[in-house]
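Lab manual, section 2.4: Encoding a predicted structure.

Procedure: take the sequence of the chain (401 residues), apply the prediction step described in section 2.3, and record the output as structure tokens. A sample record is shown.
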Amino acid sequence: MSGFLAGLCVAALPLLAAGYWLGRRTARPQSLGGLGTPVEHATFQTLHAASLAAPPLRAGLTEETARRSARRLRSLLGTDALCLTDDARVLAWDGVGGHHRTEIMERVTGALETGRGEAFRLSCRSPDCPVRWAVVTPLTVDDRVHGALVACAPRESAVLARAAAEVARWVSVQLELADLDRSRTRLIEAEIKALRAQISPHFIFNSLAVIASFVRTDPERARDLLLEFADFTRYSFRRHGDFTTLADELHAIEHYLALVRARFGDRLSVTLQIAPEVLPIALPFLCLQPLVENAVKHGLEGKTGTCHIRITARDAGAEAVVVIEDDGVGMDPGLLRRILAGEDSPSGGIGLSNVDDRLRQVYGDGHGLVIETAPGAGMKVSARLPKYQPGVHSATRLTGE
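Recorded output:
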């Protein structure tokens, strides 16, 4: 990500240069009402226009985003007309001379094939049409041409050709960041699918077997467990939303633990201590349940006595701190480091690395899992969840579906 941000900064420098050029071109000796020199004023206008054009482009190159950004991009260049195209048609035209669309698309096709920009004279029979020249600059993402930026002007200008190339380069960076956002979304979806695939077939089989064992002896309990199983699977396999609330995640964990208790009885002891004020906090979907499942697995594994699991969630100012600990067999710290680094993936380990990766992607590297463990000493897993993070919003509550 840092490489792309660096690219964005590099792409912003030509915009400053364009602003300087516009300022020099329009410079007047008088002051501009407290906005500084003409050059400073033009630079401000350039950056302001760029900041307004960026958000639509971050959604990708479509007819709607092109329409919303074309006017801002035209103001960056100060041209009579500007259009944005994909590889087949004009997506948006801003300014005069819209009757040149067909002619421009004919010339754009060649530029898209070669990946090189060009300037050419427009043929026009209308004496009142102010645009006579066009500059075509391809828009590229990862060396693939996605479309073109076309600036139209009354006359040929080498300065305009260079400025159009730099603005097109800046647009390409925005489209590259949009591609990154889509890749990040696909990655999160893939990781959630991986977690869903980890819902052990053995767990499903054992849960149904336990339910079946109560059908004759305790039909009411069998019915309750079947509802617990239905609610747990419904939550785990829901199809919308990358994020949920802490309350919904804890409800799913309660359903899961009810099924585990039905199988292991008194061998499993669970204590929950949850601060009510942290329940509405949004967090990545299926973020805590795998940690509890891991605690159950390692807590009961190789033990004949009772496994004690403690789940706490407390308010810590701008964050909520969630801790899941067990008194099970623990793990070698070296093995744990390899699991989190993706170098090893024993049964149950993928859940830890998956959750750790997603927390870091959403909140930053400072918010990965903190795990304390040693062979025979159990395991304590802590997660710090910011109460507010841009872009993190919970989906519709399950009860409203």
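Check your result against the sample. Confidence is low (pLDDT under 50) at residues 1-32, 396-401.
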